Amino acid sequence: MKIKFLSFLVVFLITSACGANLPSITPTPSAPRTLTVMTHDSFAASESVIQAFENQNNVKVQILTSGDAGTALNKAILSKGNPLADVFYGLDNTFLSRALDEDIFEPYNAPGLASIPDRFKLDPQNRAIPIDYGDVCLNYDKTYFSTHNLPPPQNLSDLTKPEYRSMLVVENPATSSPGLAFLLATIGRFGEDNYLDYWKKLVENDVLVVNDWEQAYNTEFSHFGGTRPIVVSYGSSPPFEVIFAEKPITEPTTAVITNDSSCFRQIEFAGILKGTKNRDLAEKWLDFMLSTTFQEDIPLQMFVFPVNPAAKLDERFTKFLVIPDETANIPPQEIASKRDAWIKAWTETVLR
Q1: 32, 131, 132, 35: which is closest to 83 by C-alpha?
Q2: CB 48 within 8 A of CB 300
Q3: Which pTM value belongs to this model?
Q4: In angstroms, how far is CA 336 from the centroid of its own chain?
Q5: What are the structural domains of the chain?
Q6: Contacts of 105 (CB under 8 A, 6+ apart)
Q7: What is the pLDDT of residues 62-104, one digit of tens each?
Q8: pLDDT in tens, 308-335
Q9: d(C-alpha 46, C-alpha 131), whole Å
Q10: Rounded to an integer, what is the distance from CA 315 to the centroid of its chain?
Q11: Are 292 and 308 within 8 A, CB to CB?
């Protein structure tokens, strides 16, 4: 017994001595995974906001910009089943039905949806999660109308009156998202049987058609040195004019026409692409996009507004922003089935 005890004691002392010299082992952190988010070219978010998500989830977010909303959606459809990304963001209600018909998204009942107003939820299966919205409306140059002693137009119908001849610039709906939204506003306001007659009157009143918003707003609009005091833009444009003014101003010198369903509301969505190998991270990203951290970052980055009512807006938005009481309404399914035909008919009527 004594020999066995001594043997045990020797082994114990040797083991303890060796262990005392062993270095402490710190677990090696796993390398960050990559989450790829496919978007339109207008996507923007603060670096600190993206970094907050990355730090919380040990992930690297890769933004894959893929053209305008329609082009990006085409790429997502062509890669269906073997997606180029894990999440798609930037789909709006003008293309929603096409995306759902192509079955490119996986359903996800995001917890944050419980606090989102029902008017933004257009997919009952929660394949497309609403993220933000913006109203495409007519903007006018207040200075022009005051100096010319002319009351600004109050609705779409006023634009056909002779006193507003050669004043309107619009974007081509075949090449521009706000241009398409404005076309839809005229269809929603005047009906499918009458909208082309309305556009004929606009042509007779010398409407100017350009390819994109940049040219319409920053070149042709009289507020920036052009000759046209009425432009198709966004309901958010006047507040942004104050926020981003080179010289401080106390109120915008442009205003928005919102009467008589003159605006069309664009709602943007995000969804988990079918075939993603990072479903867990994709869910976390959608949860993050609905959080106040991301939602409060949206307005000053992408000039659209959060769907989460808990997100706080810059006080300059709340002071100068005009939200239409009613917007032109066309079901997404009808837009999907008739969009191309409407654009073709518009092109033949307005451009030829």
Answers
A1: 35
A2: no
A3: 0.80
A4: 19
A5: 33-133+267-313 (3.40.190.10), 134-264+324-350 (3.40.190.10)
A6: 88, 99, 127, 128, 271, 272, 273, 274
A7: 999 988 788 889 899 999 989 999 999 999 898 898 899 999 9
A8: 999 999 888 888 888 888 999 898 889 9
A9: 16
A10: 21
A11: yes
